[in-house]
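Margin note from the TA: students keep mixing up input and output lines. Inputs are the sequences; the output is the structure of the whole complex. Example:
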Amino acid sequence: MEIVKTSDLVYEYIRRDEEGNVEGITTAVDKVNLDIRQGEFIAILGHNGSGKSTLAKHINAILSPTEGTVWVDGMDTSQEDKVWDIRQTAGMVFQNPDNQIIGQVVEEDVGFGPENMGIPTKEIWERVEESLRAVGMYEFRKYSPNKLSGGQKQRVSIAGVLAMHPKCIVLDEPTAMLDPSGRREVIRAVRGLNQVEGVTVILITHYMEEIIHADRVFVMDRGRIAMEGTPRQIFSQVERLKELRLDVPQVTLLAYELKKRGVELPDGILTEEELADALSVYC
Amino acid sequence: MLRDITLGQYYQTDSVIHRLDPRVKLGGTLLFILSLFLFDHFTGYLVAVVFLGIVIRLSHVPFRFMVKGMKAILFLLILTVTFNLFLTPGTELVSFWRLRITWEGLAMAVTMAARLTILIIGSSVMTLTTTPNNLTDGMEKMMKPLKLLHVPVHEVAMMMSIALRFIPILLEETDKIMKAQLARGADFESGNIFKRAKAMVPLLVPLFVSAFHRANDLAMAMESRCYRGGEGRTKMKPLIYQRRDRLAYLCIFCYLAVSIILGRLVWLWI
């Protein structure tokens, strides 16, 4: 069964001048059709302003569609009485870790979601422990969030969502403000959730390296889905990616250039090991 | 480093007083302060000092931290003492030039000084032994009856705890903006007060803009984690009275009884 499904989703931002007259309409999401199955690892890729964050906010019912429908686990997000159920089913992690941590102690922040859901105290503690262990932050449970690194803070945010026991987690550019080591930490934690806990992951990003492990990738451009497929299928279309103003990972680019010069290589090489293996034939 | 600042004046250590329920400490401090205004004899203050001394010993907080709190009110203290000393009518003790000190004035000044000193030290015991977070929780629970009068108790408590979480972040941001402006030739230090206040504008505007951005993000993050006000919310760390809290209440009431008997009633009978 689909955990997230959208049909002809359209969202328009209406800009108004000081008197409230409509100044202009920007279509951020334009006729998007998605279907994401339970347990999948989905990556949504796109440069700034491609509408990927707007799309993400629909899955969490923060925005409701101008036209079309979004279903989360069979619930229509435009139904107001279902909003809280939807937010429990599809948790959301945002870009800036500082602006989404509410608690003054790590464990209190992770407990914030379950507290809001009205979970009994004893179970909150169980959930907090389990979530913090899942992201590898259990030793830091008594710390103040201000003393953690960016990657650690973002893992705490993920634990905070995980403690609500969602079926699906939407991560809206969770690594955009992190350094490379923090980025690796977060991506490792996210993959762990998907593989060990079986949570559906929708990762929104503009870093190409992060989508390598995804089951399926959607590339967005000007509010539409421009490309769709496995990471390998996506990376084999280097020219198209460049057109969409996306950076292709170095290895993939090198393999592509070599191929253009006449070296025989398979399409869509994703990792350094793969390229080394493919090249070893020539040695 | 700005990241390490502690808010309030919480002194981190482990003691019976630290572990008490914040409601006990809040209520106890309130009753203690109240008691100071009921005495009309010195013995009352003596009892208060002894009681406070015991509490301070139990709290394991060095005494000098309590005295720190006194600095803030030193001026007020001197002012009160001076006025009471010179302006109270009664039997003359000494007089020189146009000033007279009376017996009553002397007694009044000493009482006022004692009262203020004990009051400040007493309340700093509370703030030194309770984390701001705990204090907010305690206040929320104590004020709950006010909900019937439509006072948004939960919301105020939530605002306070969010403010506490964001103060260090905003301080750090101020520091960052300041450095950025200094690098571009801003001058925050020279000139008179008006000039310096004017120099703060390029600091405050970006700070406010960023604070609003943060508030917006935070509200969205809270909503996406199902926050919908205090209704139907459970607590991860609920405040439940333990044996030690009941004992502490008993101690406070004992103190109150003894101090009022000695400080007020006994002297009425004699």
